[in-house]
Specification:
By secondary structure, the chain is mostly beta strands. The chain has strands at residues 32-36, 43-50, 54-62, 67-76, 79-86, 93-101, 104-112. The radius of gyration is 24 Å and the shape is elongated.
Amino acid sequence: TNSCPNSSDVIPVLVAVLDAEEKLSVLPLDYSLSAYPNPFNPSTTITFTIPRTAQADLTIYDLTGRSVATLADDVFNSGKHSFAFEAHALPSGIYFAHLQSGAFIDTRKIVLLK
């Protein structure tokens, strides 16, 4: 039979238990911009990620190019950032979420249906 030669020896074992609520924090490698839900009524959440600390400007425009809301205009740490866009006072239609951070620029079409 195979048996431990010194079965009374104590072997220390370190066990790390992660709480189910803990999430691994992973920094993004690239920029992204999204809106959910889309189409929306009367609010949506606009989320962007940036790979490093930088100035970011997130503005909503209507079809004519007029700015209807500035959701963010500040320096943000690397990571994911979310903002609620409340469009109660705006008419139904197509809008654009525009993100600019350094040389990165992206625009997403969002649709308000009332």
